[in-house]
Amino acid sequence: MKFKSELLTAASGSIGGTTYLRSAGALVRQARPRPTNANSPHQRAVRNFFGVTANAWSNLLSQPQRDAWSNYAALSPVTGRFGDPLTLSGHAMFRRVNTVRLTNAHSLLPDAPTTPGLTEHGITGVAVLKISSVMGGQITIGTPWANQDDGFLQVQTTRFLPPGRNYYSGGLRLWLTQNGQFGGSPVSFFGPDNAFGQLVSDITLGMKCLFRITACTDDGRLSSPLTQLVTAVM
């Protein structure tokens, strides 16, 4: 459980039977959800990637490589749960970058980026279109990851949510990996269902889906995640 202040202007996590989470512009308190499957194939894969990156840090990387990750992390703060700048350790940054890479079927990257800072995701808009039975988004032409053979975009989604819901406390799953291509940057991504296999054609107007989108360049720089709750429209 994390509190930003005793006045609860910001809180995240669970304590007792209560869970606090951020919604669209407000702090939400709800009964603590019970996980229905704490050992799904997706969760097992993520735990395996955590093990792979921990072993690589301890047994495969040289000390100069670990020092380079620490230096990159010190110069490249990320955004914390409450929107504040957060400086990770070199180990945490290495695991953060490479867990994303392994999850999206890219190779483990032992060397830290030499350019400090994060990259851009380049997403200009995300939509769920009932009339077309698809959902997806647009990508800015010239975004760095999109013009690199080893760059990619990770797109995760939730299940479809009822029209009155403005928050989601469950897990997200990998929906799509959009790989970049040198000289032929992708300009969009789309699909007929969400990461849980629910078809856009089966939902009603006003239902929602939460997207979380992260980009990764070929040198391992991640973007800040774009998290957006999208309502299905015609």
Q: What is the CATH architecture term of the largest domain?
A: Sandwich
Which class do the helix and strand fractions yield?
alpha+beta
Indicate the mean pLDDT.
87
Q: What is the CATH superfamily classification of the largest domain?
A: Immunoglobulins
Number of helices: 3
Percentage of residues in strands: 25-35%
Number of domains: 3
Radius of gyration: 19 Å
Strand arrangement, major sheet: 10-9-12-13-7-8-11
* SSE string: EEEEHHEEHEEEEEEE
CATH class of the largest domain: Mainly Beta
Largest sheet: 7 strands, mixed
**Overall form:** globular
Q: How many distinct beta strands?
A: 13
Query: What is the straight-line distance between the termini?
Result: 40 Å
Describe the structure in your own words.
The chain is 20% helix and 29% strand. With 234 residues, it is α+β, with helices and mostly antiparallel strands. The strands form three sheets. The protein has a seven-stranded mixed beta sheet with strand order 10-9-12-13-7-8-11. The mean pLDDT is 87.
Summarize the structure.
With 234 residues, the chain is of the alpha+beta class. It has helices at residues 41-59, 63-75, 90-103; strands at 2-3, 11-15, 18-22, 27-31, 78-79, 85-86, 123-129, 134-139, 152-157, 173-179, 188-191, 208-216, 226-233. It folds into 3 domains: 2-31, no CATH class; 41-103, no CATH class; 123-233, Immunoglobulin-like (Sandwich), CATH 2.60.40.
